[in-house]
Amino acid sequence: MYKALYRKYRSKTFDELYGQEAVVESLKNQVKNNELNHAYIFSGTRGTGKTSAAKILSRAVNCLNPQDGNPCNECENCKAILEERAIDVVEMDAASNNGVDDIRELKDKVIYPPTNLKYKVYIIDEVHMLSKGAFNALLKILEEPPAHLIFILATTEIEKIPATILSRAQKFNFKRISNDDIVDNLSRITELENKKCDEEVFNLIAKSSDGAMRDALSVLDQLLTIDKDLIEVEDAMRIMGISSNKLIFELTDALIDKDNNKVLELIDEISREGIDFSILTSQLLSHFRDLMLVKTLRDPKKIVFSTYIKDFDLQSYKIELYELLEIIDRLKDLSIDMRYAENKRVLLEMTAIKISMRLNQKEIISRIESLEEKVNDDSFKPLNNHKALDSIQDKGRNNRDYSHIEDQSKKLISNEKVKENEAKISKENSTSKNTKETDNVENDAKSDIINSDIKIDEIKSNWDNILNEIKAKKFSLAASLVNSVPKRFENNLLEIDFSNTDEMFFKMCNNDENKSIISDVFETIYGVKIDVHMIYKKIKKENKLEDLFGKDNIEEI
Ligand SMILES: [Zn+2]
Q1: Which of 3, 15, 86, 314 has its CA 20 to 30 A from that of 330?
Q2: Average pLDDT in the 477-503 region?
């Protein structure tokens, strides 16, 4: 019968266990000194060796000839347990045996001494799944445990275990296994299986298994069934459902070049290959993060782990740092939205187009600046200048073109997320349609709030802390605020001055979403709800622009 690799190569002694040195050291000492506990809790994320360690411990405590705290795996007792014929070692899965009755039944059984072994050992997997009644029955046993009894409770969710149980057990936390350890084990097993893989294959599997050896081994399991002399990285990518680096670089290029057509074509190509859009999103996010690091760090090789470091370097020249920050923000939000989304493709396409459009911001800003210059020019006559007006309206049309896609895809996100986003959209819509109305509503809502007595000097001296809090919510906003100055605080209205910094940052910050983030942070720190007003010394010219074209024809940026 075929045996999965992770079963076939399960560690059989503590010394063979990967990446859990502290746990191993302590358990071996307990076995050596015969200082055993009646209950152990092994907690940690999946695939980190909890069940393997439980099985090893069940043999070590019963071994007739233990080796430095490890089971010998040769003696009669070890063999009986290994071959699963020892009736004194019982494995239960709480996910399937979560009834009170099973544990009550246990209570009647555990009082009898073991038939053949030294200890009766009960291993309960996923113990957090036990019902309340079952936990109570278990507690009764643990309150007065017979001398020959050991419970090993394994869980991925220790916070769900009642405190009464926790206090009666010794807790061991299993860490995520390091990439180096995973690579080491993968190449060892591949060799034992008489197969060959590119070294890059192991790195790729380790990187994507998030510290879970079992996940890594099940990918290897599928890979080793491929009938090839040398298994290559492309084979691994196909099996893992991830896009090749070539595709990711192409998609990133298209996003940087604002080539919407190419972007959508590539997404279609990726879709046809059956690649999961959530995985693609996290690949893109990590790609843009690497670009940011390559652009920022003096020696990116220390952090960016990639054979493509030169390609990253080239790509990073084509894009500004502030653009990268914005894109990373958008992709971060997308990866959260993906969890709730039914139609992930629409969501990805929408974000991709937004990214391309967002990159046009620089052009839009320069367009507005050139308009401003014309406004100052006496010969300028607004009614005759259809071109200027058109270019502004064009931008509005472009925005509207995508709004229906946006509305559609938001509907695909379930529950609160929908409400939250719709509220945001409707707020955005009403703001762009009629700023005055929104202002009134906001003022009404806040009119009953008592003005606080915070002084502007206090805010100034605390500005770095405030920026730190903002950074946690939206990195790009904090980055754009770095050279701004809190100027005035009166009647719960905070005025932030951007005159010392590039106008671009003012334009990037000055919108309702950002203002409400700043306001929220303020509420967290000072417990006061505030309004935020942003100023820039050229602001008068914008008013002129509004007078000429009418406020509705000027889009907020
Ligand atoms: Zn033994």
Answers
A1: 314
A2: 83
